[in-house]
Records
---
Amino acid sequence: MIGQRLYRARKATGLSLRDLGAQVGLTHAAIKKYEDEQATPSSTTLLKLANALNVRAEYFFRQATVVIDRIEYRKRSTLPKKRLTAIEHEVVDQIERRIELENLFPSPTVTPFAPVRGLPERIRDLAQIEEAAEAVRNAWMLGFDPILDLVDVLETHGIRVFEIDAHADLKFDGLAAFVNQMPIIVVGSNWPGDRQRFTLAHELGHLMLGDRLADGIKEEVACNRFAGAFLIPRQSVTQELGAHRRYIEPKELALLKEEFGLSMAGILYRARDLEIVSSAWCESQMKLFRFKGWHVTEPGKPYPPEKAHVFEQLIFHALGEEYIGESKAAELMKMSLTTFQTIRSLESGNAAANQ
Amino acid sequence: MLLLISDANILIDIESGGLITFMFSLEVQFAVPDILFNDELKDLHAHLLELGLQLRQFDDEQVQRVV
C-alpha cells in the first residue's frame, strides 16, 4: 500500500527515482524497492519522503476505500503531461477523501447523476444548443433566473465539484471527467468568480453534449455556447437587452455581469450569438476590450469566486451526528488536530479548508 | 520509566491545563512517535522537545505492522 502511494506522490511532483533518492539521502534502487513493496521504509524515512513529496505522512497510510486507477478525460488537455499528472494526483486525493467521508454516512449524501430528459438527440447546429441549455435548466427547475450558487446546483444533481489551486498554471481552467462512473468537474480556485462559473458551465456542457454533437461541430465551441446559454438563457438576454441593439454601453454589460455572473465579454458574445447586435459591432467592441486590457482583467469589482463547500459541510455534518470523531475530521481535512479545533471553535480568522 | 504517548491530544490538553511543566518534572520519560510529532505537534508545540519530550521512530517492521 505504501509503495503504490509513494509511486503516485512521486509522479505527481515529477521527480525521478534518482531525484527523490538524492533529496532523502537514498539510492534510486532503495526508492524503487519501496515502490515495489519489496521493502518498507522506517518512520524516519517516511517523514523525509513525505517532506520531499509535500504530503502528510498520514497520506501513506490512508486506506483507499475506492480504487481510482485513472481519470477519464472528456477531452485531451493542452497541458503538459507532467502538470496533468500533478493535477490528477491532487484531484484523486480529494476524491478519495470525499468518497471516504461519504461512505461514513449511513445513507447516501449525493443524489446519483441522471441524464437530463429533453436534450436534443443530435445537435446539428450551434443554435440548437440554446434548447439543450434550456432543457437542462428546465429539468433542474432553474427557470430563467440568475444562478447564484453554481457549485450547489451541480452538486445537487450528482456532479461533484472539486477546486484545485492552479496558480502555478495559467493554462488550467478546469476539466470534466468520470471517476468510477461518477461525473466530476474540477475548477481552478484562483480565478475570479465569473471565469470559474464559465468554466463550470463549460465543463457541464461536455458532460451534457459530449456524444450528441454532429460531425463538424467543434466540442469546445459548442461547450462555450452552452456555458453562455446556461448562465444567461436567451429569454433573459432578450428581456434584459431587448431584441435588437445598435450599441450597448460597457456599464450595462457590467451591471448584467453583476446580476448573472457571466463576464462582460461573455454577455457581449451572447448578444452576438442571439443576433441582438451585429457580428461586426461585437468584433469592434472586442477590439476595444483588448485595447483597454479588459480581455485580461475586466473593469469594476470582480465577481465573487465560487466555493466548493460541500466537503467541508459534510465534515461538520458527520461530526455533529457523530459518524466521525475530531481526529478523523482533521485527517480528512489534511490538517493537525489543533488546527481543526481552532476552525471548529470558529475562533480562527480564516476557516479555509486545506482541501 | 518510559511512557509512549500515541495521542497528541493528551499533550495538548495537559498543556492547556497548565500542567505540562509539572508533567515533565516527574521521574518519567515521555516519548511520541516521530510521525505523530511531525503531523500534529511540530507546528504549534515544538517547545515540548525542550521540556524533555523524546521522539521514537518505527523501524521498517513496525511500519509494516501498522500497514
---
Amino acid sequence: MGRLLLVTIQVDMHDRLALALQDDLTARIVRDGARGVLIDISSLELVDSFIGRMLGTIASMARMLDAETVVVGMRPAVAITMVELGLALPGVRTALDVEKGMEMFRGRAGPEDGPPDHDRLQ
Amino acid sequence: MIVSSEVAGLRSSEDVLKVRQAARALAVRAGFGLVDQTKIVTAVSELARNTVTHGGGGDATLELLEEGSRRGVRFAFRDQGPGIADVELALRNGYSTCGGLGLGLGGSRRLMGEFDILTAPGKGTTVTVARWG
C-alpha cells in the first residue's frame, strides 16, 4: 500500500493560491504514489464556496488517481457557517483531527508505511 | 450612526482577501463573537468575489454602525458590470452562470440578515448587507 500526503493549510488563501494547491497536490499524488491525502484546515478561519469547491475538486481528482481524501480539523464556527451558507462538501470525508484522520487510513495501509510527507503552505 | 467608514478597491483575488480581513477587524470592533465573525467574513468573501468575477471589479464600502447601545457592520459592494436580469433566479441556491456552486448571493443573505440588491442589465450591481449585534 502507498503513502499518505499530509497538507497543512496555514494561510488565508486567495483564490489563485487555492487553485495552485489543487494542481500541486494532484501532481504529488501521482509522483509519490500516494493512496491517501489528509488536508488539515484547522488554521482556516473560513471556508467559503470557493475553498469548499476546491476541497471537493481535490477529493474527486484524488479518487480518480486512486487516493482517498480526508479533510481534518475544521473549526466549529466554520462548520456552522458552511451549513448556513449551503455548502455540504459532498464526497469529502472529514475527521476531527489529524490523528483521527490517520486512523481512517489505517485499515488500508500496510506495515511498511513510513510517516506521511508533510507539505506546508506558507 | 456611522462610526467609521472605509472604501477598498476590488480588482483581484488578493483584494478579496484584504477586504475580508478588514471585515473581520470591523466585526471584532463591533463586538461580534467568533461564530458571527465567521458568518460575516464568509458572506463578505462571497460578495467581494462576485464583484471581481461577475462585475469585472469595483469597490467595497465597510462601515461600523452604532445605534444606542447596539453595534453593527454594513458592507456595500459596487460594480459597473453587466448587472443581473433575474435577481430571484440569482438568489436561488445552485444557480450559477460561471460554473461555481451558486451559493454566494443566497448564502450571504442567510448569513447576514439584512440584504439589499440594486441591479439592472447594463447598469452594474450594488449589494448591501448588514448585521447587528
---
Amino acid sequence: MKLTAPSGKEAAVCAGIGAGGALLFLYVFPRGALTTLMHDVLHLPGPGAGIALIFGPFLILVVLGSHRVSGANGGALIVALTFALALALVVRLFRIPTNPKGAFGSVFFIVAVTLLGLVLEVVMALRSALSPPRRCILAGILANALLLVFYWLVIFPRTAGWVKWGDVPLLMGICLAAGVISGYLASVLSRALSRALAFMEKE
Amino acid sequence: MCGPADFAALQTSLTRLAGLWLAGVGAYLVYKASSLYRQRRLNQGGEEKGTVRKLLRRPAVVISGER
C-alpha cells in the first residue's frame, strides 16, 4: 500500500467539496424536516433513525464520491473534517436553527463526522484487497454503523436519551441497508463523475 | 423526545430537494448535449479532412498528345 500526502490542489478540492456538502445539507434539511420525516411520516422509532437513514448516507455519498474523484490519500478525512467544521461555523455564524437532538456543530458532532471520515479513509486504502464497488459498500456499511453507534453512546444520551434495546435491531438493520445503498451509489456516481472529468480534461 | 412535527419544514425540504434534482438533471442534459455536439463536429471535421486527403492522393491526370 503506497501512501502519499495529498497535494495542495487536491486538499483544496477536498475541502471545497466538504464545505459545499455542509451547505447543501443545511439548505436541503431545515430544522424539523428530518425528525418529522422519520417519526411522523415513516413512523420509525428513535433516536437514530435520521442519522441512519439520511445524515450518515448523505455524508458517505459526499465523502466517498469526492475521495474517488480526487483519488488523494487522506482525501476522505479532509472532506469529513471540513464538512463538520464548515457546518459548525455556518450554524454559529448565521445562527441557523438546527435540531438540538443531533448536536449539529458541537465538538461531539465534529468528532463523530471525523471518525466517519477516518473509517472511510482506512477502508478505501485497502486497494489491492477488494474491487472498488465492494470497497465502497464495505466502507459505507462500517462508516454508517460507526456513526450511529457513536450517536447512541455519546451524543443522544446528552440530547435525547438512550435508545431502547427493542429498537436497536430495526434501526441497525436500516443503518446497514442504507450503508450498502449509499456505498454502492457513491461507487456508481464517482465512476461516472471521474469518467466525465477525464473526458473534459482530454478535450 | 422527538419534538413537535414540522410539516412545513418537511415540505420546504422536499421542494428544495426536487429543485436540486431538476437542476442536476438539467446540468447533465446540457453536458450530454454539448459533448454530443462536439463529438459530431469532430467527426465532421475528420470526414472533411479525409475528403481533402483523398483528392490530394489522386494521381495527376496525364493528357496524352500534349504539346
